[in-house]
Amino acid sequence: MNFQQKRKDLVNELREKGIINNDVLNALLEIPRHKFVPKKHQKEAYKDYPLPIGENQTISQPYTVAFMLEALEVGPGQKVLDIGTGSGYNAALLSKLVKEKGQVITLEIKEELIKKAKQNLKSYKNIKIIKGDGSQGYSKEAPYDRIISTAAAPNILKNWLKQLKKEGIIIAPVGSLTQVMTKVTKKKNQLKKEDLGFFQFVPLKGEYGF
Ligand code: SAH
To answer: Ligand 1, residues 204, 207, 208, 210: which to mutate, most atoms within 8 A of Cβ?
Structure first.
């Protein structure tokens, strides 16, 4: 099976669906999504839909992943907090976007998923995988240029805002049954909030989650 060709086709599909950021599209071209999904789903790895990764969790649909990363405006050298490691796929894409000088701190609450993610991310030097409750953020490594949650939160959490730099961006799905993708931009400590449309995610657990 030619995974590289499948990746190219997927990226073209995402472009047609409206993703325009070439850094994001190139990261999707580079990272082998099939290595982040269970073996029995490998042949579907480049279809534009979510897939189960065990523990009742899913790896998000590629379009959603690309949409969020585009909205996050990630660049080289940045420090990013990634909440909900899952398979590690989103962390791997972030690792490409921040490049060697940047850093990705990724938090996962489920031990079983951490084990797998550690294997999946072995070769990525600028990613730190931490077992923790993302609803509290991760103050030890704060402040962050960017914070992204791939689990649905009840709101944009106070700790996230606190742990964001004076200039920074948070992207997170907010809500219980369906979620509004929410973008918060902090500029000189002023906050701007935007709604980017409806999506569906698994819930954020933990102290300030659901
Ligand atoms: N980004 C992942 C998919 C995430 S699915 C990927 O690329 O594969 C959402 C993940 O958030 C699940 O793995 C779930 O276990 C995790 N999660 C839920 N609540 C959490 C919390 N409070 N802290 C950290 N991770 C959490």
So the answer is: 204
Prediction pTM value? 0.98
Ligand 1 atom closest to the Cα of residue 92 is: 7
| Closest-lying ligand 1 atom to the alpha carbon of residue 204 | 19
Helix (H) or strand (E) holding 179: strand 179-187
176: annotated active-site residue: no
| Encoded tokens for 127 | 């990613």
The kind and range of the H/E element at 158 are helix 158-163
pLDDT in tens, 152-162: 999 999 999 99
Q: Residue 15, Cα to own-chain centre: how many angstroms? A: 19
| Residue 92 to residue 129: CA distance in whole angstroms | 11
Measure the CA angle with vertex 49, ends 179 and 14; round to 5°.
Answer: 95
Structural contact between residues 164 and 147, judged by C-beta atoms closer than 8 angstroms:
yes
Ligand 1 near 201 CB (within 6 A): no
Tokens of 4: 């590289």
Nearest Cα neighbor of 141 from 95, 83, 58, 80 is: 80
